[in-house]
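User: Can you model how fe (ii) ion sits in this protein?
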Amino acid sequence: MYDTESLNKSLSWNQDDLSRVIEGLNEDGFGVMQSVIPAQICDSMIAEFEKMAEEQISENTADPLKYSNNINTIAMGQHMVRNVMLRNPEMFMPTIDIAPVMAVLDAIIDDTVILEGSSANNAVAVDGNYSRLIHIDSNLAPADPTNTLDVVAFLCMSDFTATNGATRIWPKTHKSGIQIHRDPAYKDKVPPGHVELIAPKGSIAFVLGHTWHQMGENIDHTDRWVLLNHYKRWWIKPSTDYTKCGPQVFEQLTDAQKVLLGFNSIPPKDQVLRYKTLIKVDEIPGGYEEALSN
Ligand SMILES: [Fe+2]
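Assistant: Here's the modeled complex, given as structure tokens:
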């Protein structure tokens, strides 16, 4: 079984941190738990990200389940390696259901939640060629936070500083009802009032999917690695069909991970046996093939 339990034991956080983050998410659209993940774990994850990033550049044919064609964004300041938990499940699958993240999701989204995506992301200094869009991640911009569709957990493996590409966030825009990247009124404009997501290594920042944000510019050439785990309501399609993970990955999943990867929200194959898409976690068949064909 992928070992979320021992990862959980190494984390530093408490109920006050949780309450502060929930308040921040409701009031401002984001919140930070400082220094949760031990530096040693961050460093070993960064070493693995660096290896994957190099492999990604050198691979001629990318496996679409693990990588995307994001190599072209490196020139503009962002190096992204998608689905790290499929490439190295032993190390990264436990990050998708760690306790502080599950507690925040539980408080913010009153629904079954799945993983939208999990990607390692480095801010790259590109001296003048930096160009990243101000955007929201959500498919909709509900003005009422109780209708939040998705939450992004930023597992900050490096320090996030003012000069290494810390994410820019526009507080309270989660109540604006505006999808900034699709709204002609904001075309080529930088709205005032952003803050930088400054946080020490090991922090976990949470951002609602409809809060305006932008990847920051790295001007000091130090790496700024983050693991972005993005979660959404179960009835929205994820960016990868994680039920295609294969039997080897499936057999080691915890129940919580099976839910996050979508194994209890597969549309029924036989509508005589079942007509609803969402099933209880203990109704997921034990075998991989059975789980896919029930
Ligand atoms: Fe984003």
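A couple of observations from the model: Residues 4-240 form a domain with the Jelly Rolls fold (CATH 2.60.120.620). The chain has a mean pLDDT of 92.
User: Helpful, thanks.
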